[in-house]
Amino acid sequence: MMHKVSLVVVLGALTIVGVGCDSDSGLTPVIVAPTSHLGRGINLGNKLEAPSEGEWGAPVEAWMLTTIERGRFATVRIPTRWSAHAAAVPPYAIDAAFLDRVTWVVDQALSAGLMVVLNMHHYQEIFADPHGQRDRFLAVWQQIATHFRDYPDSLVFEVLNEPNTNLTPELWNAFLLDALAVIRQSNPDRYVMLGTGEWGGIGAMQRLQLPDDDRLIFTFHYYSPFEFTHQGAEWVSGSDAWLGTTWGTSQDRAAVQRDFDTVAAWAVQHDITVFMGEFGAYSRAAMDDRLAWTTFVRSEAERRGFSWAYWEFDAGFGAYRNGQWNELHEALIP
Question: Which residue among 49, 162, 198, 300 is the active-site one?
Answer without folding.
Answer: 162
